[in-house]
Amino acid sequence: MNIPSFVTHYHPTEDPPFRNLSEVPKPERDKVIAMLAERRQQQPRSHRVFGAKYILLRLATEEKLRSLFLAAGGRPERKAPHYFVLGSSKWFEGLYPSTKSVVLPLDELDSLTTSITFPDSFTAMRLSETYGLPMEPLKPYHEKIYLLSQLSELIREFGIPEDAPNPDYFNYAQKSFEKYIEVQVWSDIPVQRFLQVNSIKKQNANLQI
């Protein structure tokens, strides 16, 4: 099976890429979550679910991811990673009514700051049950992170999850799914040019207030 030569980060068109709720200061987090919930209600095709359980699960998942990555010899430069999928994902692209993406060649990623989970990290780290969400039966690749050097062996043994958009995404957070291989980039260096654009947009927005 051929290994995709690129990774993709998806984000809603109205937001810049590489925003992570984990990095929002706690006093502001509830406001952001409320804004995202309101957006979901106003946009019928906005399927991404956020909430109090989501952020708690996200923080715990990232802590476990980082710990496993450090134990495997990784050198994360960030507390939380930037998230990508290996290759592309029609399923992830369909979470938003209008989606944009950032694509990076796989060979631009540094092995010391890149980890991989099969499938996404929420499923792989198996912390969902603690937060009242269903947990999939244990698989051999769960509770593990993989390094770039292990990617070909991982795909040779387990393949690549079948990708297809959901017809309606109804209640998807309560269902078991394996849709993509997730790639976590624990450094700003590969995406620096996009972060600079985000910073400029934020400064301009502040000037308009």
Percent of sequence in beta strands = 5-15%
Beta-strand segment tally: 6
Number of domains: 1
- Based on CA atoms alone, the radius of gyration comes out at 17 Å
Per the principal axes of the C-alpha atoms, what is the gross shape?
Answer: globular
Category by helix and strand content: alpha+beta
Give start-end ranges of low-pLDDT stretches.
200-209
Order of adjacent strands in the largest pleated sheet: 3-1-2-6-4-5
Rounded mean pLDDT score: 85
Profile the largest sheet.
6 strands, antiparallel
Distance linking N and C termini:
52 Å
SSE string: EHHEHEEHEHEH
Number of helices: 6
Secondary structure: helix percent: 25-40%
Helices, strands, pairings?
Blueprint: E1 6-12, H1 26-42, H2 52-71, E2 82-86, H3 90-93, E3 99-105, E4 114-117, H4 121-125, E5 146-147, H5 151-158, E6 182-185, H6 192-208
Antiparallel strand pairs: 1-2, 1-3, 2-6, 4-5, 4-6
List the main descriptive attributes of the protein structure presented here:
209 residues; alpha+beta; 6-stranded antiparallel β-sheet; single chain; 34% helix
